[in-house]
Amino acid sequence: MNLTDTALFRQQAYINGQWVGADTGGTLAVDNPATGVLIGTVPNMGAAETRRAIEAAGAAFPLWAAKTAKERSIILTRWAELIVQNVDDLAVLMTSEQGKPLAEARGEILSGAAYIQWFAEEGRRVYGDVIPQPRGGQRLLVVKQPVGVCGAITPWNFPSSMIARKAGAALAVGCTLVVKPSDLTPFSALALAELAERAGLPAGVLNIVIGDAAPIGDELSFNPIVKKITFTGSTAVGKLLLSKAAQTVKKVSMELGGNAPFIVFDDADLDAAVAGAILSKFRNAGQTCVCANRVFVQEGIYEAFAAKFTAATQGLKVGNGLDTGTTTGPLIDDRALAKVERMVAEATEKGARVLTGGTKHALGGRFYTPTVLADVTGEMSVVRDEIFGPVAPLVRFKDEADVIRLANDTDYGLAAYFYARDLGRVWRVAEALEYGMVAVNEGAIATEVAPFGGIKQSGMGREGSKYGVDDYIQLKFVTFGGI
Ligand code: NAD
Protein backbone atom coordinates (compact mmCIF):
# COMPACT_ATOMS: atom_id res chain seq x y z
CA MET A 1 0.00 0.00 0.00
CA ASN A 2 1.37 3.35 -1.02
CA LEU A 3 0.73 5.87 1.77
CA THR A 4 2.38 9.27 2.20
CA ASP A 5 1.95 8.99 5.96
CA THR A 6 2.67 5.36 6.84
CA ALA A 7 1.76 5.95 10.51
CA LEU A 8 -1.88 5.93 9.42
CA PHE A 9 -1.58 2.21 8.78
CA ARG A 10 -2.06 0.89 12.32
CA GLN A 11 -2.10 -2.84 12.94
CA GLN A 12 -2.88 -2.73 16.66
CA ALA A 13 -6.06 -1.98 18.56
CA TYR A 14 -6.48 1.28 20.50
CA ILE A 15 -7.42 1.08 24.18
CA ASN A 16 -7.06 3.89 26.71
CA GLY A 17 -4.77 5.84 24.41
CA GLN A 18 -2.42 2.87 23.89
CA TRP A 19 -1.83 0.82 20.74
CA VAL A 20 -2.11 -2.76 21.90
CA GLY A 21 -2.23 -6.38 20.72
CA ALA A 22 -4.52 -9.19 21.86
CA ASP A 23 -3.87 -10.81 25.26
CA THR A 24 -3.24 -14.11 23.51
CA GLY A 25 -1.02 -12.49 20.87
CA GLY A 26 -3.45 -13.85 18.26
CA THR A 27 -4.04 -11.95 15.05
CA LEU A 28 -6.50 -11.84 12.16
CA ALA A 29 -5.39 -11.49 8.56
CA VAL A 30 -6.99 -8.80 6.39
CA ASP A 31 -6.85 -9.13 2.62
CA ASN A 32 -7.55 -6.92 -0.36
CA PRO A 33 -10.85 -8.08 -1.91
CA ALA A 34 -9.67 -7.06 -5.39
CA THR A 35 -6.55 -9.23 -5.29
CA GLY A 36 -6.93 -11.61 -2.36
CA VAL A 37 -3.47 -10.45 -1.24
CA LEU A 38 -2.77 -9.98 2.49
CA ILE A 39 -2.70 -6.31 3.52
CA GLY A 40 -1.83 -6.76 7.17
CA THR A 41 -2.99 -8.21 10.48
CA VAL A 42 -4.93 -6.95 13.48
CA PRO A 43 -5.27 -8.31 17.02
CA ASN A 44 -7.84 -11.01 17.54
CA MET A 45 -9.37 -9.76 20.78
CA GLY A 46 -12.18 -11.04 22.96
CA ALA A 47 -14.10 -10.23 26.12
CA ALA A 48 -11.14 -9.37 28.40
CA GLU A 49 -9.70 -6.66 26.16
CA THR A 50 -13.22 -5.31 25.53
CA ARG A 51 -13.80 -5.09 29.28
CA ARG A 52 -10.60 -3.06 29.65
CA ALA A 53 -11.69 -0.75 26.86
CA ILE A 54 -15.08 -0.29 28.53
CA GLU A 55 -13.42 0.47 31.87
CA ALA A 56 -11.13 2.99 30.18
CA ALA A 57 -14.14 4.65 28.55
CA GLY A 58 -15.90 4.61 31.94
CA ALA A 59 -12.94 6.30 33.64
CA ALA A 60 -12.64 8.90 30.88
CA PHE A 61 -16.36 9.72 30.84
CA PRO A 62 -16.62 12.15 33.81
CA LEU A 63 -13.67 14.21 32.57
CA TRP A 64 -14.87 14.31 28.96
CA ALA A 65 -18.47 15.09 29.96
CA ALA A 66 -17.24 17.88 32.24
CA LYS A 67 -15.48 19.68 29.40
CA THR A 68 -17.44 22.52 27.89
CA ALA A 69 -19.21 21.82 24.62
CA LYS A 70 -16.84 24.31 23.03
CA GLU A 71 -13.76 22.46 24.28
CA ARG A 72 -15.08 19.22 22.84
CA SER A 73 -16.04 21.01 19.65
CA ILE A 74 -12.50 22.33 19.16
CA ILE A 75 -11.02 18.81 19.38
CA LEU A 76 -13.67 17.33 17.08
CA THR A 77 -13.18 20.11 14.55
CA ARG A 78 -9.44 19.43 14.55
CA TRP A 79 -10.20 15.73 14.03
CA ALA A 80 -12.45 16.50 11.06
CA GLU A 81 -9.78 18.76 9.57
CA LEU A 82 -7.11 16.09 9.95
CA ILE A 83 -9.36 13.57 8.21
CA VAL A 84 -9.84 15.98 5.31
CA GLN A 85 -6.10 16.73 5.13
CA ASN A 86 -5.32 13.01 4.98
CA VAL A 87 -8.12 12.06 2.59
CA ASP A 88 -5.75 10.67 -0.08
CA ASP A 89 -4.04 8.20 2.26
CA LEU A 90 -7.28 7.27 3.97
CA ALA A 91 -8.88 6.57 0.58
CA VAL A 92 -6.03 4.27 -0.48
CA LEU A 93 -6.33 2.45 2.84
CA MET A 94 -10.09 2.05 2.43
CA THR A 95 -10.00 0.92 -1.18
CA SER A 96 -7.29 -1.59 -0.33
CA GLU A 97 -9.30 -3.25 2.43
CA GLN A 98 -12.86 -2.70 1.16
CA GLY A 99 -12.59 -2.63 -2.65
CA LYS A 100 -14.67 0.43 -3.55
CA PRO A 101 -13.28 2.78 -6.24
CA LEU A 102 -10.90 5.43 -4.95
CA ALA A 103 -13.30 8.28 -5.81
CA GLU A 104 -16.04 6.64 -3.71
CA ALA A 105 -13.59 6.06 -0.86
CA ARG A 106 -12.67 9.75 -0.93
CA GLY A 107 -16.35 10.65 -0.94
CA GLU A 108 -17.03 8.45 2.07
CA ILE A 109 -14.11 9.87 4.04
CA LEU A 110 -15.14 13.45 3.35
CA SER A 111 -18.72 12.57 4.28
CA GLY A 112 -17.50 11.13 7.59
CA ALA A 113 -15.50 14.29 8.28
CA ALA A 114 -18.60 16.36 7.46
CA TYR A 115 -20.62 14.42 10.07
CA ILE A 116 -17.93 15.02 12.70
CA GLN A 117 -17.78 18.71 11.82
CA TRP A 118 -21.57 18.95 11.91
CA PHE A 119 -21.77 17.39 15.36
CA ALA A 120 -18.86 19.52 16.63
CA GLU A 121 -21.17 22.45 15.91
CA GLU A 122 -24.43 20.79 16.95
CA GLY A 123 -22.97 19.74 20.32
CA ARG A 124 -22.90 23.42 21.27
CA ARG A 125 -26.64 23.71 20.72
CA VAL A 126 -27.88 20.99 23.07
CA TYR A 127 -30.39 23.20 24.85
CA GLY A 128 -32.69 22.21 27.70
CA ASP A 129 -36.12 23.68 28.57
CA VAL A 130 -37.73 25.81 31.22
CA ILE A 131 -41.31 24.61 31.69
CA PRO A 132 -43.96 27.06 32.93
CA GLN A 133 -44.76 25.87 36.46
CA PRO A 134 -48.20 24.31 37.08
CA ARG A 135 -48.23 25.66 40.69
CA GLY A 136 -46.81 28.71 42.42
CA GLY A 137 -43.50 28.45 44.25
CA GLN A 138 -41.99 26.09 41.68
CA ARG A 139 -39.52 26.13 38.81
CA LEU A 140 -39.29 23.25 36.34
CA LEU A 141 -36.24 22.52 34.20
CA VAL A 142 -35.29 19.88 31.67
CA VAL A 143 -31.56 19.36 31.27
CA LYS A 144 -29.88 17.17 28.65
CA GLN A 145 -26.98 14.98 29.73
CA PRO A 146 -24.75 12.54 27.88
CA VAL A 147 -25.85 8.93 28.12
CA GLY A 148 -22.39 7.73 29.22
CA VAL A 149 -20.21 4.98 27.78
CA CYS A 150 -21.48 3.79 24.39
CA GLY A 151 -20.63 0.61 22.51
CA ALA A 152 -20.56 1.00 18.72
CA ILE A 153 -20.52 -1.95 16.32
CA THR A 154 -20.06 -1.13 12.64
CA PRO A 155 -20.06 -2.90 9.25
CA TRP A 156 -17.52 -3.28 6.44
CA ASN A 157 -19.41 -1.55 3.63
CA PHE A 158 -18.75 1.98 4.92
CA PRO A 159 -15.78 1.36 7.20
CA SER A 160 -15.06 5.01 7.97
CA SER A 161 -18.27 7.06 7.79
CA MET A 162 -20.36 4.62 9.85
CA ILE A 163 -17.91 5.20 12.72
CA ALA A 164 -17.65 8.96 12.11
CA ARG A 165 -21.44 9.37 12.26
CA LYS A 166 -21.63 7.67 15.62
CA ALA A 167 -18.45 9.07 17.13
CA GLY A 168 -19.24 12.62 16.01
CA ALA A 169 -22.59 12.66 17.80
CA ALA A 170 -21.52 10.66 20.85
CA LEU A 171 -18.31 12.56 21.57
CA ALA A 172 -19.79 15.99 20.84
CA VAL A 173 -22.37 15.65 23.63
CA GLY A 174 -19.90 14.17 26.14
CA CYS A 175 -20.24 10.39 25.77
CA THR A 176 -17.21 8.11 25.49
CA LEU A 177 -17.00 5.22 23.10
CA VAL A 178 -15.81 1.68 22.50
CA VAL A 179 -15.96 0.83 18.80
CA LYS A 180 -15.87 -2.62 17.27
CA PRO A 181 -15.39 -2.24 13.52
CA SER A 182 -15.83 -5.13 11.12
CA ASP A 183 -12.73 -7.32 11.13
CA LEU A 184 -12.92 -7.28 7.31
CA THR A 185 -12.14 -3.54 7.26
CA PRO A 186 -10.39 -2.57 10.49
CA PHE A 187 -7.67 -0.31 9.08
CA SER A 188 -9.96 2.61 8.23
CA ALA A 189 -11.21 2.57 11.83
CA LEU A 190 -7.69 2.46 13.27
CA ALA A 191 -6.60 5.34 11.04
CA LEU A 192 -9.50 7.39 12.40
CA ALA A 193 -8.29 6.65 15.94
CA GLU A 194 -4.74 7.69 15.01
CA LEU A 195 -6.05 11.03 13.73
CA ALA A 196 -8.30 11.47 16.79
CA GLU A 197 -5.22 11.06 18.97
CA ARG A 198 -3.36 13.65 16.90
CA ALA A 199 -6.36 15.96 17.26
CA GLY A 200 -5.92 15.84 21.04
CA LEU A 201 -8.72 13.46 22.05
CA PRO A 202 -7.90 12.39 25.64
CA ALA A 203 -7.01 8.75 26.37
CA GLY A 204 -10.01 6.48 26.91
CA VAL A 205 -12.57 8.72 25.14
CA LEU A 206 -12.42 6.66 21.92
CA ASN A 207 -11.34 3.02 22.01
CA ILE A 208 -11.19 0.49 19.18
CA VAL A 209 -11.31 -3.25 19.79
CA ILE A 210 -11.09 -5.82 17.01
CA GLY A 211 -11.63 -9.56 16.93
CA ASP A 212 -14.20 -12.21 17.65
CA ALA A 213 -17.59 -10.53 17.14
CA ALA A 214 -19.67 -12.63 19.53
CA PRO A 215 -17.63 -12.27 22.77
CA ILE A 216 -16.89 -8.59 22.03
CA GLY A 217 -20.57 -7.98 21.28
CA ASP A 218 -21.61 -9.84 24.44
CA GLU A 219 -19.26 -7.82 26.64
CA LEU A 220 -20.56 -4.57 25.14
CA SER A 221 -24.16 -5.76 25.51
CA PHE A 222 -24.02 -7.12 29.04
CA ASN A 223 -21.45 -4.89 30.79
CA PRO A 224 -23.39 -2.48 33.03
CA ILE A 225 -20.85 0.31 32.47
CA VAL A 226 -22.07 0.53 28.86
CA LYS A 227 -25.25 2.61 28.76
CA LYS A 228 -25.98 2.47 25.06
CA ILE A 229 -25.43 0.23 22.05
CA THR A 230 -25.29 1.85 18.65
CA PHE A 231 -25.18 -0.64 15.81
CA THR A 232 -25.01 -0.51 12.03
CA GLY A 233 -25.25 -3.83 10.26
CA SER A 234 -27.62 -6.60 9.33
CA THR A 235 -31.10 -6.93 10.77
CA ALA A 236 -30.27 -10.44 12.04
CA VAL A 237 -27.35 -9.25 14.19
CA GLY A 238 -29.33 -6.14 15.19
CA LYS A 239 -32.10 -8.33 16.64
CA LEU A 240 -29.53 -10.34 18.57
CA LEU A 241 -28.01 -7.20 20.04
CA LEU A 242 -31.44 -5.79 20.89
CA SER A 243 -32.31 -8.87 22.90
CA LYS A 244 -28.97 -8.84 24.69
CA ALA A 245 -29.08 -5.11 25.44
CA ALA A 246 -32.48 -5.72 27.03
CA GLN A 247 -30.81 -7.59 29.89
CA THR A 248 -29.39 -4.35 31.27
CA VAL A 249 -32.02 -2.08 29.63
CA LYS A 250 -29.55 -0.14 27.54
CA LYS A 251 -30.53 2.61 25.18
CA VAL A 252 -30.16 1.39 21.57
CA SER A 253 -29.84 2.78 18.06
CA MET A 254 -30.09 0.37 15.17
CA GLU A 255 -29.19 1.14 11.54
CA LEU A 256 -30.09 -2.15 9.89
CA GLY A 257 -30.69 -3.68 6.50
CA GLY A 258 -32.80 -2.27 3.68
CA ASN A 259 -34.74 -3.32 0.60
CA ALA A 260 -35.09 -0.01 -1.19
CA PRO A 261 -37.68 0.34 -3.95
CA PHE A 262 -36.62 2.55 -6.88
CA ILE A 263 -39.77 3.57 -8.74
CA VAL A 264 -39.91 5.07 -12.22
CA PHE A 265 -43.31 6.48 -13.21
CA ASP A 266 -44.42 7.08 -16.79
CA ASP A 267 -44.03 10.85 -16.37
CA ALA A 268 -40.42 10.62 -15.13
CA ASP A 269 -37.49 12.32 -16.83
CA LEU A 270 -36.13 9.11 -18.33
CA ASP A 271 -32.45 10.10 -18.54
CA ALA A 272 -32.46 11.46 -15.00
CA ALA A 273 -34.11 8.25 -13.76
CA VAL A 274 -31.49 6.10 -15.50
CA ALA A 275 -28.64 8.17 -14.03
CA GLY A 276 -30.23 8.02 -10.57
CA ALA A 277 -30.75 4.26 -10.79
CA ILE A 278 -27.13 3.68 -11.84
CA LEU A 279 -25.88 5.76 -8.91
CA SER A 280 -28.24 4.24 -6.40
CA LYS A 281 -27.85 0.63 -7.53
CA PHE A 282 -24.19 0.25 -8.44
CA ARG A 283 -22.38 2.51 -5.97
CA ASN A 284 -20.06 0.37 -3.82
CA ALA A 285 -20.86 -2.56 -6.17
CA GLY A 286 -24.40 -2.58 -4.79
CA GLN A 287 -23.19 -3.08 -1.23
CA THR A 288 -24.99 -0.19 0.45
CA CYS A 289 -27.88 -0.38 2.87
CA VAL A 290 -29.75 2.35 0.98
CA CYS A 291 -29.06 1.11 -2.54
CA ALA A 292 -31.93 0.40 -4.92
CA ASN A 293 -32.78 -3.25 -4.41
CA ARG A 294 -35.90 -3.45 -6.58
CA VAL A 295 -36.48 -1.23 -9.62
CA PHE A 296 -40.20 -0.79 -10.34
CA VAL A 297 -40.93 0.65 -13.78
CA GLN A 298 -44.39 1.68 -15.00
CA GLU A 299 -45.55 -0.24 -18.06
CA GLY A 300 -45.65 2.75 -20.45
CA ILE A 301 -41.96 3.51 -19.95
CA TYR A 302 -40.72 0.01 -19.10
CA GLU A 303 -39.10 -0.97 -22.42
CA ALA A 304 -37.48 2.43 -22.96
CA PHE A 305 -36.12 2.51 -19.41
CA ALA A 306 -34.86 -1.09 -19.63
CA ALA A 307 -32.97 -0.33 -22.86
CA LYS A 308 -31.32 2.85 -21.59
CA PHE A 309 -30.56 1.44 -18.15
CA THR A 310 -29.03 -1.70 -19.66
CA ALA A 311 -26.81 0.39 -21.96
CA ALA A 312 -25.69 2.54 -19.02
CA THR A 313 -24.97 -0.59 -16.95
CA GLN A 314 -22.82 -1.96 -19.75
CA GLY A 315 -20.81 1.28 -19.57
CA LEU A 316 -19.66 0.54 -16.01
CA LYS A 317 -16.03 -0.45 -15.65
CA VAL A 318 -15.33 -3.35 -13.32
CA GLY A 319 -11.89 -3.57 -11.75
CA ASN A 320 -9.52 -2.86 -8.91
CA GLY A 321 -10.73 0.28 -7.15
CA LEU A 322 -7.19 1.65 -7.16
CA ASP A 323 -7.13 1.70 -10.98
CA THR A 324 -8.17 4.86 -12.79
CA GLY A 325 -11.59 4.65 -14.39
CA THR A 326 -12.92 1.79 -12.24
CA THR A 327 -16.57 2.33 -11.34
CA THR A 328 -17.36 -1.08 -9.87
CA GLY A 329 -15.04 -2.90 -7.50
CA PRO A 330 -15.14 -6.47 -6.18
CA LEU A 331 -17.56 -7.88 -3.65
CA ILE A 332 -16.22 -8.03 -0.13
CA ASP A 333 -15.67 -11.79 0.11
CA ASP A 334 -16.38 -15.15 -1.51
CA ARG A 335 -19.54 -15.61 0.55
CA ALA A 336 -21.00 -12.36 -0.83
CA LEU A 337 -20.18 -13.45 -4.39
CA ALA A 338 -21.76 -16.88 -3.87
CA LYS A 339 -24.93 -15.23 -2.48
CA VAL A 340 -25.29 -13.00 -5.55
CA GLU A 341 -24.73 -15.97 -7.88
CA ARG A 342 -27.35 -17.97 -5.99
CA MET A 343 -29.93 -15.17 -6.15
CA VAL A 344 -29.46 -14.59 -9.88
CA ALA A 345 -29.68 -18.34 -10.58
CA GLU A 346 -32.91 -18.58 -8.60
CA ALA A 347 -34.40 -15.59 -10.43
CA THR A 348 -33.57 -16.92 -13.89
CA GLU A 349 -34.90 -20.38 -12.98
CA LYS A 350 -38.18 -18.70 -12.04
CA GLY A 351 -38.36 -16.82 -15.35
CA ALA A 352 -36.30 -13.63 -15.04
CA ARG A 353 -34.55 -12.55 -18.24
CA VAL A 354 -30.90 -11.42 -18.16
CA LEU A 355 -30.59 -8.14 -20.10
CA THR A 356 -26.88 -7.83 -19.30
CA GLY A 357 -24.38 -9.55 -17.01
CA GLY A 358 -25.71 -12.48 -15.03
CA THR A 359 -22.32 -14.07 -14.42
CA LYS A 360 -19.06 -13.67 -12.53
CA HIS A 361 -16.80 -11.16 -14.24
CA ALA A 362 -13.99 -12.28 -16.54
CA LEU A 363 -11.49 -10.78 -14.06
CA GLY A 364 -12.31 -13.70 -11.76
CA GLY A 365 -11.79 -13.42 -7.99
CA ARG A 366 -14.66 -11.61 -6.28
CA PHE A 367 -15.75 -9.56 -9.28
CA TYR A 368 -19.33 -9.86 -10.51
CA THR A 369 -20.58 -8.36 -13.77
CA PRO A 370 -23.10 -5.52 -13.33
CA THR A 371 -26.39 -7.18 -14.11
CA VAL A 372 -29.90 -6.18 -15.16
CA LEU A 373 -32.74 -8.69 -14.86
CA ALA A 374 -36.12 -8.15 -16.54
CA ASP A 375 -39.50 -9.84 -15.96
CA VAL A 376 -38.79 -10.11 -12.25
CA THR A 377 -41.70 -11.06 -10.00
CA GLY A 378 -42.48 -10.74 -6.32
CA GLU A 379 -41.67 -14.29 -5.26
CA MET A 380 -38.01 -14.10 -6.34
CA SER A 381 -35.40 -13.55 -3.62
CA VAL A 382 -33.86 -10.63 -5.57
CA VAL A 383 -37.03 -8.75 -4.67
CA ARG A 384 -37.60 -10.13 -1.18
CA ASP A 385 -34.05 -9.97 0.22
CA GLU A 386 -31.16 -7.54 0.31
CA ILE A 387 -29.02 -8.44 -2.75
CA PHE A 388 -25.88 -6.55 -1.68
CA GLY A 389 -24.36 -6.91 -5.12
CA PRO A 390 -24.40 -5.25 -8.58
CA VAL A 391 -27.70 -6.75 -9.70
CA ALA A 392 -30.75 -4.68 -10.68
CA PRO A 393 -34.08 -6.54 -10.89
CA LEU A 394 -36.69 -4.72 -13.02
CA VAL A 395 -40.33 -5.19 -12.06
CA ARG A 396 -43.15 -3.90 -14.27
CA PHE A 397 -46.11 -2.14 -12.59
CA LYS A 398 -49.47 -0.78 -13.66
CA ASP A 399 -50.43 2.21 -11.56
CA GLU A 400 -49.72 4.19 -8.43
CA ALA A 401 -51.78 2.04 -6.05
CA ASP A 402 -50.17 -1.09 -7.47
CA VAL A 403 -46.61 0.13 -6.93
CA ILE A 404 -47.22 1.55 -3.45
CA ARG A 405 -48.49 -1.86 -2.39
CA LEU A 406 -45.48 -3.62 -3.95
CA ALA A 407 -42.96 -1.13 -2.55
CA ASN A 408 -44.32 -1.38 0.99
CA ASP A 409 -44.59 -5.17 0.90
CA THR A 410 -41.39 -5.75 2.87
CA ASP A 411 -40.28 -5.89 6.50
CA TYR A 412 -37.66 -3.25 5.73
CA GLY A 413 -38.21 0.51 5.76
CA LEU A 414 -34.92 2.33 5.23
CA ALA A 415 -34.74 4.25 1.94
CA ALA A 416 -37.04 4.58 -1.08
CA TYR A 417 -36.58 6.45 -4.37
CA PHE A 418 -38.96 7.52 -7.08
CA TYR A 419 -38.91 9.54 -10.27
CA ALA A 420 -42.06 11.42 -11.31
CA ARG A 421 -43.03 14.93 -12.34
CA ASP A 422 -46.71 15.20 -11.55
CA LEU A 423 -46.87 17.33 -8.40
CA GLY A 424 -49.90 15.61 -6.90
CA ARG A 425 -48.36 12.20 -7.48
CA VAL A 426 -45.05 13.31 -5.95
CA TRP A 427 -46.79 14.30 -2.69
CA ARG A 428 -49.04 11.24 -2.56
CA VAL A 429 -46.24 8.76 -3.17
CA ALA A 430 -43.75 10.47 -0.84
CA GLU A 431 -46.33 10.28 1.94
CA ALA A 432 -47.47 6.71 1.23
CA LEU A 433 -44.04 5.07 1.16
CA GLU A 434 -43.37 3.38 4.51
CA TYR A 435 -39.71 4.33 4.73
CA GLY A 436 -37.51 6.46 6.99
CA MET A 437 -36.07 8.28 3.96
CA VAL A 438 -37.56 9.07 0.55
CA ALA A 439 -35.63 10.56 -2.37
CA VAL A 440 -37.70 12.16 -5.15
CA ASN A 441 -35.89 12.56 -8.47
CA GLU A 442 -32.56 11.89 -6.73
CA GLY A 443 -30.38 8.79 -6.58
CA ALA A 444 -28.39 9.63 -3.44
CA ILE A 445 -29.80 10.28 -0.01
CA ALA A 446 -27.24 10.65 2.81
CA THR A 447 -26.06 14.02 4.09
CA GLU A 448 -24.88 15.12 7.51
CA VAL A 449 -27.56 17.82 7.68
CA ALA A 450 -30.54 15.43 7.45
CA PRO A 451 -31.75 12.55 9.66
CA PHE A 452 -30.59 9.18 8.32
CA GLY A 453 -32.38 6.07 9.56
CA GLY A 454 -35.07 3.52 9.05
CA ILE A 455 -38.42 2.27 10.31
CA LYS A 456 -39.88 -1.26 10.57
CA GLN A 457 -37.07 -3.84 10.67
CA SER A 458 -34.56 -1.36 9.25
CA GLY A 459 -34.05 -0.01 12.73
CA MET A 460 -34.56 2.87 15.11
CA GLY A 461 -32.75 6.10 15.83
CA ARG A 462 -31.36 8.73 13.47
CA GLU A 463 -27.84 9.76 12.51
CA GLY A 464 -26.98 13.26 11.30
CA SER A 465 -28.98 16.50 11.55
CA LYS A 466 -30.18 18.18 14.74
CA TYR A 467 -31.92 14.91 15.65
CA GLY A 468 -28.68 12.93 15.57
CA VAL A 469 -27.57 14.08 19.03
CA ASP A 470 -30.79 12.87 20.68
CA ASP A 471 -29.67 9.25 20.59
CA TYR A 472 -26.69 10.06 22.83
CA ILE A 473 -28.58 12.23 25.32
CA GLN A 474 -30.85 11.54 28.25
CA LEU A 475 -33.33 13.97 29.65
CA LYS A 476 -33.32 14.93 33.30
CA PHE A 477 -36.27 16.77 34.77
CA VAL A 478 -35.37 18.95 37.75
CA THR A 479 -38.08 20.59 39.81
CA PHE A 480 -37.39 23.33 42.37
CA GLY A 481 -39.89 23.96 45.15
CA GLY A 482 -40.15 26.54 47.96
CA ILE A 483 -39.47 29.53 45.76
P1 NAD B 1 -23.23 -7.75 10.00
O1 NAD B 1 -24.47 -7.57 10.79
O2 NAD B 1 -22.81 -9.11 9.61
O3 NAD B 1 -21.99 -7.13 10.80
C1 NAD B 1 -22.01 -5.83 11.32
C2 NAD B 1 -21.08 -5.78 12.52
O4 NAD B 1 -21.60 -6.64 13.52
C3 NAD B 1 -19.66 -6.26 12.22
O5 NAD B 1 -18.75 -5.49 12.96
C4 NAD B 1 -19.69 -7.69 12.72
O6 NAD B 1 -18.42 -8.18 13.08
C5 NAD B 1 -20.58 -7.53 13.94
N1 NAD B 1 -21.20 -8.76 14.42
C6 NAD B 1 -21.51 -9.88 13.73
N2 NAD B 1 -22.06 -10.80 14.55
C7 NAD B 1 -22.10 -10.25 15.79
C8 NAD B 1 -22.54 -10.69 17.07
N3 NAD B 1 -23.06 -11.90 17.25
N4 NAD B 1 -22.44 -9.84 18.11
C9 NAD B 1 -21.92 -8.61 17.95
N5 NAD B 1 -21.47 -8.13 16.77
C10 NAD B 1 -21.56 -8.94 15.71
O7 NAD B 1 -23.36 -6.77 8.75
P2 NAD B 1 -22.29 -6.53 7.60
O8 NAD B 1 -22.33 -7.69 6.67
O9 NAD B 1 -20.98 -6.09 8.16
O10 NAD B 1 -22.93 -5.24 6.90
C11 NAD B 1 -23.93 -5.32 5.95
C12 NAD B 1 -25.28 -5.04 6.58
O11 NAD B 1 -25.26 -3.79 7.22
C13 NAD B 1 -26.37 -4.96 5.54
O12 NAD B 1 -27.52 -5.60 6.01
C14 NAD B 1 -26.61 -3.46 5.42
O13 NAD B 1 -27.89 -3.11 4.96
C15 NAD B 1 -26.38 -3.01 6.81
N6 NAD B 1 -26.07 -1.59 6.86
C16 NAD B 1 -27.01 -0.72 7.34
C17 NAD B 1 -26.75 0.64 7.34
C18 NAD B 1 -27.76 1.62 7.85
O14 NAD B 1 -27.38 2.76 8.10
N7 NAD B 1 -29.01 1.25 8.05
C19 NAD B 1 -25.52 1.12 6.87
C20 NAD B 1 -24.59 0.22 6.38
C21 NAD B 1 -24.88 -1.15 6.40
UniProtKB/TrEMBL annotation:
Pfam families linked to this entry: Aldedh (PF00171)
InterPro entries per record: Ald_DH/histidinol_DH, Ald_DH_C, Ald_DH_CS_CYS, Ald_DH_CS_GLU, Ald_DH_N, Aldehyde_DH_dom, Aldehyde_DH_Superfamily, Succ_semiAld_DH
EC code: 1.2.1.16
Biological-process GO terms, alphabetical: gamma-aminobutyric acid catabolic process
Location of the active site: E255
A single Gene Ontology CC term: cytosol
Entry coiled-coil feature ranges: none
SUPFAM superfamilies: ALDH-like
Statement: the UniProt record of this protein carries the keyword Calcium: no
Entry keyword set: Oxidoreductase
Thylakoid among keywords: no
Source taxon at top rank: Bacteria
GO molecular function, one term: succinate-semialdehyde dehydrogenase (NAD+) activity
EC top class named in words: oxidoreductase
PANTHER family per UniProt: SUCCINATE-SEMIALDEHYDE DEHYDROGENASE, MITOCHONDRIAL (PTHR43353)
Sequence similarity: Belongs to the aldehyde dehydrogenase family.
NCBIfam families (alphabetical): SSADH
Protein name: Succinate-semialdehyde dehydrogenase (NADP(+))
